[in-house]
Design a protein that fits this description.
heterodimer, A: mainly beta, 0% helix, B: alpha+beta, two-stranded antiparallel sheet, rod-shaped
Chain lengths: 49, 193
Amino acid sequence: VTYGGRPLYYFAGDAKAGDTSGQGVGGVWFAITADGELVKEKAAGGGYP
Amino acid sequence: MKTLENAIAAPATMGCSGTCSIKRRVGVGVTWTPTDIDRVPWVGEPSPGAAGCPTGQVIRAARKGSRQTVQGGLAMGKKFVTAALLAALTLALAACGGSDDEESASATAAPTTTVAQAATGITVAVASSSLGDILVDAQGRTLYAFTKDKAASRPAAASAPTTGRPSPAPPPPGSASRPRCCPPLPRPTAALR
């Protein structure tokens, strides 16, 4: 499954809908906006570095 | 002046010959008042009324052996006319739709609600989160992108273990199998649990 040419992934650490624990993991995993842009801001609560 | 209702309903329900005066329904299936403005030629068996015109409420129906009231006949006719008008209205609306402006508008508006639904049934939507509006799947699970995936390239993580790090969203049923030759993915150490 791709969006805007980007393959989409789940994060194993997301336990339920609405979790964004994978945001910013390793500096390479980011959520995506509807425009296909990467969300660069940190997840609430810190998330993964 | 004939009403559309009576003009259509009468030939199918009346059984007299000649030109007859239809009794117009005033109330809802109860009160009838005669009028001479609705004259429709009938073909068939005369009813007991004078000059072949129905005066009673029961007339012979088109089908032998069955009886039908004028009220019932006109009521059925009204339903038929209503259905015909609805069908005509539907066709008219369908003919008016599909302009270029409407198509471009819908294509622009679509991403704000459901972003994409593949032919295979995979739904991607936009949901509000602490990060703002982001892509989620049909169950609301956040979808991520891997920055080292180039646009329109194969998933770099296809052959990498999925525990403790983002994992590829499931491919749509019936899609081609994953590529066999994907470069190894550097695992984000902080993601390990």
